[in-house]
Amino acid sequence: MKKFLLNRNILFTSIGCFWIFFGFNGAQQYLVPLFKIQGKSDLALTSLILLYGSFLVSGFFSPWMIKFLGLKRSFILGASTYLFFVVSVVLNITPLFILASVIIGIGASLLWVSSGKIITDSSTIEESGKNLGVQFASVLIGSLFGVTMGGLLLKNLSIDRLYVLFSLAIAIGLPFLFLIKIKDKTIKNEILNISYLFDRKLIFIFPVIFASYFLSAQTFSSMNEVILSIFGILYVGVFAVCLQVSIVIGALTIGKMSDIYDKRTILYILMALGGIGAAIFISSSLFFWVLVGTIILGLYLSGTYPVALSLLRTNLNKNEYIYGLGAFQVYGNIGTVIALFSTQNFPTLNIFIAGIIFLLLASLSFYLYNKKYFQ
């Protein structure tokens, strides 16, 4: 009976994430054309900066907020902000949309930290990588379906009605979160303390997560531009699908591999794959090699979330782990924000080269730290 309850938590968390990110990432994909139609071209970028800025700042405090609210309530509240964001687009009220862009950043922090804790609390140490990979894959598959269905439906629907459907998709996902069964303890009197971000048990993973999220943000923000300049618009969709499919396959397999083999070794391999994939992607204009680089990058991007979080699970006790989840989001969002800023100010090639350098430095620091403290 206990195993059934744990498995249902993983199932309902993953189904809920599928529908939430079906609606949210589908909506995000078409924000730029929507705002161009409405004469508010700069609003999409403003929203992105506010969202990730809020996500970064709130990550400092999310473990404390979740202990105060409880895991399940935090997950539901965080998911509800995604619905609020898409509804604000439907209502076409700019101040409300700006407010929603800030609120969803806070909600994203609650959602990712609480859902990660629910998944790991519902998993054995031997299955945590696999189950985190399943959750991550459900997010990616939902995103892929949302973007694809949005493109198909735009042929027959106005873009305003499309956003109503994206809102409904998120609303479909919310009831599944209420079906999660956990003992939702709350702690009302814990003193807020962000020094956990510099704890030796957590800071060793910072370069790995930073480099991964930096390269991920750069890949998703600039890949279409690179493909467009080399092959033309007809190939943009082909490479986007190949990237997403390789990420999904990687999430479903690499997390499981980390439960079988040494997690640190898997991370070294992933960082090597990231550097090789990025180098191939930017150094060739031949279709075959650009495609190979894209697929290798996808496999790399899929693995950091489940492998790094399952590694932290082995290093931290149950009470410490929520701080590990919070630190993971802060470290990752630092990389994302810097990548987004760099994309607006530096050539794409230079930023990919910087990503490769960050990976090399991350590998070196990860090796030295592990050699000093964990061997």
List keywords for this structure.
globular; Growth Hormone, Chain: A; 0% strand; mainly alpha; 2 domains; 15 helices
Task: Kindly describe this structure.
The longest helix has 29 residues, at 287-315. By secondary structure, the chain is mainly alpha-helical. The model has no long low-confidence stretch (mean pLDDT 86). It has helices at 2-29, 31-37, 43-59, 62-69, 71-91, 94-121, 128-153, 159-178, 200-203, 206-231, 236-260, 263-283, 287-315, 318-345, 348-373.
Tell me, rounded to a whole number, the average pLDDT.
86
Q: What is the annotated CATH architecture of the largest domain? A: Up-down Bundle
Q: Which residues sit in consecutive blocks of at least 5 with pLDDT less than 50? A: none
Strand residue percentage: under 5%
Structural class: mainly alpha
Number of DSSP strands? 0
| CA radius of gyration | 20 Å
CATH topology of the largest domain: Growth Hormone, Chain: A
What does the overall shape look like? globular
**Series of H and E elements:** HHHHHHHHHHHHHHH
What's the CATH superfamily of the largest domain, by name?
MFS general substrate transporter like domains
Compute the number of helices: 15
Kindly state the percentage of residues in helix: over 70%
Q: What distance separates the N and C termini?
A: 39 Å
Main sheet record: none
Count structural domains. 2
| CATH structural class of the largest domain | Mainly Alpha
